[in-house]
Amino acid sequence: PSGHQGLLVSSHQSFLDYHMNQASAWERTALMRARVIDGDEKFMNTLKATLKHLAFETPPPDEVTACEEMDGIRTRVKDELMREDDTHFDLKHGAGGSDDLDAIIQHAQLMNSHTIPRLRTTNTFEIVAGLQVEGIISEEEFEALSSALHFYRTLLSRVRLFTGHATRIFDTESPYAEKIAKIMGIESVDKLVEMLEQHRKEV
Fold this sequence. Notes:
62% of the residues lie in helices and 3% in strands. The protein is built from 9 helices and 2 strands, in the order H-H-H-H-E-H-H-H-E-H-H. Strands 1-2 form a two-stranded antiparallel ribbon. It is globular, with a radius of gyration of 19 Å. The protein starts with 11 loop residues before the first helix and ends with a helix.
């Protein structure tokens, strides 16, 4: 909390006060993904309850303000980090990429989880399914989001497996591009790129 001006470690009460009174919308979405990893059992249980309350049970911020804030952050990330050309595709930060997909899903979760318990989960596929069941998104939107989510998760994992590091760039001229297409059951790299562009458009 409080960025560079904050303490390295805050007390539970300070953490609670900050997120109840000062946190931005993007920090709320970060809490929706937060997990308690280790520590004293009593404190872990207290912290889990706190995270659940802050992330899911408190009313959401103003929707227009939240949209503007999240759009601003995504625009800045794209400007600073996105690197693409005709043969290199940024699977995360490119327009319609996995970051934009996550932002759409997280925004819907942020606006609705305080009244819909089934959305209080860190599993993205369960969130999308819950949004459809509750009528927040249409069947067509559900199919588009689910398909794109599966496609990006699969392609990113294959690219990272072949390159040996956590890259987000798919190089269509690399030695592994054709292998990735075949593993994914796609007839060619060109067809894979065509599918990627279609998912980007739908997102």
